[in-house]
Every structure is written in C-alpha cells, then in structure tokens.
Amino acid sequence: MRNFPYLLSSSLPKGSKIGVLLFLFIAVLTALPVTASDEWTIEAVDAPSMFFNSYNRATAIDKITDQPHIVYGGDRLFHAFFDGTQWQYETVDNSSSIEQDASIAIDSNNSIHISYYDSTNKILKYATNASGAWVVLTIDAAGDARSLSSIAVDSEDKVHISYYDSSNSSLKYATNASGLWVIYTIDSLGDVGLNPSIAIDSNNNVHISYYDVTNGDLKYATNASGSWVTSTIDSSGDSGRYNSIALDSYNYVHISYYDNTNKDLKYATNASYDTDDDGDGYTENQGDCNDSDPDVHPGAAEICDAIDNDCDGQTDEGSICGPVDLIVSVLTAPAKAGEGQTITVKDTTINNGTGMAGESATKIYWSADKKYDAEDIELGSRTVPALAGGATSTGDISVTIPSGTCSGTYYLIAMADADGAVSETSETNNNTGKSIKIKPDLIVSGIKASASAPQGATITVTTTTKNKGVCAAEASTTRLYLSTNSTYDSGDTELGSSAVPALAAGAADKGSTSVTIPEGTTAGAYYIITISDADAVVSETSEANNDNYKPITITP
C-alpha cells in the first residue's frame, strides 16, 4: 500500500521531497472546493521510489465528483485518485522509465487521458481507460519525440497533444479528432517548442503556448482562424520557460511563464478587461448589454418597459404589460410632386394604448389607392423609439417619387410598426394615407396687348402659356375672350386662340394671335381674358388657375 502518513520521508531520494511537496500541494488545492475553508490542507498521497519530471499537468479534477486525479511515477506510470473516502492507486504503464513529463486530462464521460514520455525508447506515448481498461498507444516514435507533452480533450472528447520533438527541435501536435491519430509540425523555425502547454476553446480550436529556445521568447500558436498561425508573445530577455496556458469563458487566452532574465513570474493575455461603469456588478465582458444603466444587467428582473432588462436578447418576456396600439395620427406631405423628385413626409406615431410599446419602425409606401397592399412600394422609414401609453413620436422621412408615375393621383401611406415588432391590441389600424397629385399644371403667365383699341380694330395679343406642374403636358389650346369683367363666363366673346405645343415640366410657350374687336362694341372698360387648356384636353393638378386677364379700353 502506498498511503504513507509522512510527506517527507528519509527514504526518498534527494530532490524527490520537493517534487512530492509541490505535487501534493496542487492535488489537495484542487480537491478543496468540495469543503471550502480558509486554511490549506496538506496530506501525503504516495511515496514512490523514484519521482521526477512529472510536474506538467499531472493533476486533473473528476467531472462528476470533483475529486482529484494524479499521474506520477519515476520508473513506472501511476494513477492515483481520491474516491471520496481514501486514495486509490493504479499502475497505468509498468514499463521502465516511461512516465516522464506526464500530462492528464479528463473527458465528459470521466475517462482519463494521459500523454507521457518513454525515455527508454524515446517515444511519445498515450494511455486511456476510455474502454474500461487501460490501453497504451505509441503516438510518435520518429526521432526523439519528448519533453513536457501537454494533453487536452475537446467538447467531442477528441484528444489533442502538444509536445517537443527534440530530434528536430520543433513544436509538434498530435490529435485523433479525425478518428485516426494525425501528427503535425506546428513550428520548426529554430529550436522551438520546449515546455508546450495546450488548451481547447469552446469552438474546439487549439491554443498552444511554448518556449523558443533559439531566441529566448514566449511563443503562441493557434488554428482558430482555420489554419495554424504562430506569434511571439514576449521577446524581452529570456522569457517563456515553464509556461502554462488557459482560456476563459470568452475564449480569451491567459498564459503564465517564467522570465529567466529577471527571475520573475509573468502573465500575458489577449483579454480586454473592461470596467463596471454603472456599478451594477456586471461588465460588458460579463454580459452587461448596457453598462451605462444600472438597472440593465444579466441579473436584473424583466419588467414591462420595452427594454431588455436582463440582457437575454428578449424584451418584456414574462412581465405583465398593458395594451399597446400604435397608429399614425398625423401625416403631412406636399400636395403635388413629380417623378424622381425627393420630398419630405412628416408623421406622428402615437401609442394609443396604456402599455409600453417597444421600439418600432414607421414606413412610407407609394400606392395607387388609399388602401395598403403588398404591391405598394416602400419609399422610406424611420425608427420610432419605445413609447409609453399615450406617448408620441414625430419625425421626418425623406422619400423619392418613383419613376413612371405621371400622371395621376397617388397616395402616400404611412404604416406604424410596419415590421410587426410590437404585439398590439389591433393590427388593422396601423396605416393612414394622404393623396398626392402627379400631373402637369398649365397657366397663362403673361399677356401683352394694346391698352386701348377702337371697335372693329384688329390687334395682336401675345400670351405665354407655362407648364408649372411636375409632369409633361400634351399639346393644348389657349383661347382669348373679351369680357366686361375680369372673370370668365359663358357670355364672354371669344376673340381667337393660340395653339400650344406639348410642354415639359417648367417649360413655356409664347404665341401671338391677331384678334378683332367686334363692331358695335360699346365704348368703355373691358378685359381680355386668356384661358390655358381651354378645351380641357390635359389633366392637371389644378383646373382653377387656367385663366388670366389684361384690361383694355374700347373707344368709339
């Protein structure tokens, strides 16, 4: 039986006492969380006749009982584990001089995996009890594959081993992830790979820290990008010996190592440490999705406020909220516009309910009628913030009138919660519409004629007909009348007409017409009235602005 009551026995070789002390110290430390206390507990586990070079990952914790497992030896490879009552012992490999540089890992099934060096045959070996009995395999027998191997298992219980090939002075890596053992050379630039340490992240990517003997540097290798990448972490002095790597829950890398130049223990990490800015006990790295609001953090209670209070990606889940009903209460836009023109539409979205409405989107659609349907064209949108019951949000949306819309009357439809992000008491009252005319508009912008003329005289009247609309106008006719007042009526006398060609938006046409003042016209004050599109062949945005007039005095 190997359960010796004294840790430091005079029967142990010189040097073995320190090794066992460190070894036991770690073993008991890992067992302590089961019965945590403020004091360290130290106990003897074993006193083998030879004990050396078994300090690399020699301890692991049982996945089920949280009890320690230890691999060690000197002339054989032993496995000791605490069963909750006492230490139990197994001989893993009974070969001579095979246990050096042992490393242990435990998979999700609580099976043991050990990598170690056979110094007699100078090979890397691997042992596991995954089948229920110990099985020993030779992993690398090429050259002298040795020196402080490090073992890890991934989430699929595949095995990964990093080790130093002293024959080729290189860092090597072996894995059975494919189902068969495959060996890779990771770094062979100079004498590299001493003291490797391996860790597997949550995506089953491999991370290895190791010592560059040639340059005295700490180096790091990973296949997280899909291919192996090596980098130098610390090149100051002689740094990197006896390194150990670990990963946190965010897959950040943490490495401890020895600085031989300054005789210091050093630590390197690529983690970005953040602070608890709002004092709620959580940082961004700890899942705080809003580190400026102390009421928002992973430990907060979810309440009905349209905010993800507990940072789980959901809003108001499990909370009791009042009814919510989003509508567009006000919609303003220009009364007319032209194709390709950019206009500004203003809406007011209101929560017509009493509960809290989460963030939503109000969108503007282009429609041929007053009712929204799937064929309507989305022109633009804006984000509406969370709205308490009765609260409103007003904003502008810049939209462009689609091409091919001349001419006619169309509708701008505004729809609240257009994406259906908010659960409402009514989903049928979200939209409202406003008509917009996309047509030409013909006017007579100028009249030039004599200020007076005798009855029976022929005069020239020059008119300028302009399309002030936003669409092209087809050919039309401007007619001239003689009236006793400035407003046209059916009793007015037509004097003549001027043909107007098709006019683009904003274009104008100037035409001259010879007209005769009728014989017998009583002398006095009259008006020459001009009417654009007098025959109403053009559909216009306004039919009430076609006429213009110019005073004229008729003499005997």
Descriptive overview:
The chain is an all-beta fold and 556 residues long. The protein has five domains: 1-141, no CATH class; 148-271, 6 Propeller (Neuraminidase), CATH 2.120.10.70; 272-320, no CATH class; 326-438, Immunoglobulin-like (Sandwich); 442-555, Immunoglobulins (Immunoglobulin-like). Helices cover 3% and strands 44% of the residues. It is built from one helix and 34 strands. The strands form nine sheets. It has a five-stranded mixed sheet, with no helix packed on it. It is elongated, with a radius of gyration of 45 Å. Mean pLDDT is 88; it is low at 1-34.
Task: Summarize the amount of helix as a percent range.
Answer: under 10%
Question: Approximately how much beta-strand content do the residues carry?
Answer: 35-45%
Strand sequence of the main sheet, in spatial order?
A: 28-34-33-30-31
The residue-averaged pLDDT reads 88
Overall body shape: elongated
Please tell me how large the radius of gyration is. Answer: 45 Å
Separate helix tally: 1
- Uncertain runs: 1-34
Tally the beta strands.
34
- Find the structural class using helix and strand composition: mainly beta
Domain count:
5
Q: Can you summarize the main beta sheet?
A: 5 strands, mixed
User: In whole angstroms, how far apart are the ends?
Assistant: 147 Å
